[in-house]
Description:
Chain A is of the alpha/beta class. Helices cover 32% and strands 17% of the residues of chain A. In chain A, strand 15 (342-345), helix 13 (353-363) and strand 16 (373-376) form a beta-alpha-beta unit. Chains A and B meet through strand 2, helix 2, helix 3, helix 5 and strand 8 of A and helix 5, helix 8, helix 9 and helix 10 of B.
Amino acid sequence: MAKTLYQKLVESHTVARLDEQNVLLYADLHxxxxxxxxxxxxGLHEAARPVAVPGQHLSVVDHIIPTHPVSxxxxxxxxxxxxxxxxxxxxxxxxxxxxxxxxxxxGIEHVITPxxxxxxxxxxxxxxxxxxxxxxxxxxxxxxxxTSEVEHVLATQTLVYRLAKxxxxxxxxxxxxxxxxxxxxxxxxxCIGAQGARGYVVEFQGSAIxxxxxxxxxxxxxxxxxxGARGALIAPDxxxxxxxxxxxxxxATQYKEAALxxxxxxxxxxxxxxxxxxxxxxxxxxxxxxxxxxxDQAVPVTGKIPSPASAPDATVRxxxxxxxxxxxxQSGTNMEGIAVQRVFxxxxxxxxxxxxxxxxxxxxxxxxxxxxxxMVVPGSGAVRRQAEREGIAQILIDSGFEWRQPGCSMCxxxxxxxxxxxxxxxxxxxxxFEGRQGRGGITHLMSPAMAAAAAxxxxxxxxxxxxxTHV
Amino acid sequence: MSDMTxxxxxxxxxxxxxxxxxxxxxxxxxxxxxxxxxxRGIDKKGLDKGLLxxxxxxxxxxxxxxxxxxxxxxxxxxxxVAGSNFGCGxxxxxxxxxxxxxxxxxxxxxxxxxIFYSNAMNNRLLLVMLPEAEVQRIMEDVSNPLTxxxxxxxxxxxxxxxxxxxxxxxxxxxxxMFLEGxxxxxxxxxxxxxxxxxQEQHWQLRPWLHNIxxxxxxxxxxxxxAKPLGNS
Lengths: 471, 232
């Protein structure tokens, strides 16, 4: 029988069928951070249960970590510091690999695991973090779980998993100059809505997807969760397998043939049927910007803030009105020209080396507007060092950007990087929720290129009008 | 309807009955349900304080008297009637713990964020999904403090507000989990033999998935000139 990629991944990881809707799913890799795992370890200890398979877990300090540009980092907040030491204690006790606060390879969980070659096609990857969908870029089934489930995975290496439905999003055509994978996913979310993929695992197919780099695919899959998806998938191709083999010498030297043979089966069969399908044309994707407080409240940068009166129903209208109250904007206003005081380039969505190259290409020889405080927080120590080697860091510093240490930083503002009330930020992150980047702060989501343009001009700017050819 | 409050019924898992408060905003995300500053613990304590903090308190940490959960008529509310996609966003289970610590035992909405849904079920926070029109009518009922009582009978899977009687569904598994409680990890561990057998075969077929974290760390330690800069 013809199967989708999602069905194949579930099947290859099903330990037992529990009932009509649930299976016991095996987890190949479980990633933990300092803030969603402590209560799971506490529960485990209370029940006197061991970690079933310590070699299939790893931990990272990333959400609370300060990103000041000093090499040795000290977490000042006592509660946050305790979260870090507690994680180290739990990892030591159970023999779990930890990328600790001052580890040279520390970084955002979803940035370091692919770059270290730990994400491989056909895996199931779990993490107490919703952006675990990132790993679909490799044809791995990744999704976020709660702390109770973290405890379950620690104790059993499995998860009680409610099966999802299959959605296909086909994107053909060529992304125009100035538009990126970030713009593509923002466009898709604005079309299908913040719960347009709720209940589904989304498989992306089409020539526009095939043309994306691995890092761009990670951006795409990462943010698919903002449409409510339970997972995102792209069938692994040569780009994916080359990326993995280059970073995982253990496979390249020992198991290459067997692995490639297995990975070649990881695609939806031709006759496979999806529960629902959407089709988009990449050539229609302009640089997108959010105007509201939900990721689906987005328009092309050349557009205007829509009127709540044009909303399809009373609920959407009320949500739009509330969003405009919070963001202090009025319907009919042009997106271009809205002044920002902050620019944040970072997060598991857009803090990889390709993102930073794009930013450097735009800001080289230009200066950050005097009205703007602009920060670049690289996704990992490795990204940071590579950017320094490539001269990117110097370009950013010369332009007036703060060049900081890696971490989640102002994506969710759990550390000491946050917006002040009323500050407006051009941000390469994934969520523009009320208060997400700091209480009273206002987030406009956009691509790294667009955020770079906003940093230079001090307002939301169509990057295509900056006269760059290498955007 | 009975005037029984949620607290006097706390041990009864067959029904949730009490004052319901309406939070109609769609896509009410877990960042709003439990803001970041309350996520710094290593235990589950004190999260009632953080629940919906920015909606309950103003920027000077003063109670917003107009917010529904701050109104005297809704004090002790045990049910929230919410807009669609309630609990979307971050996976933080703190949102569920905070709702429960605040006294909320059930949320009625047209739809829920997926991770939030699993988190709620694992903590026996009852989630009732009803069509948008029915949720709307229940909201209208409970917006009047005189008709704000709602009864959810878990056994028969029915909801009753002043003017609405509706049925909802739960999977057999979730129905059982809510009524009887379930040591989910214990139940899975009873399948340990199956897990072991699966794992052995899985790694035999795909040896590159075995021990990934340790293999990777050992390789890094052996090859990377960049030693850790220190320890925390």
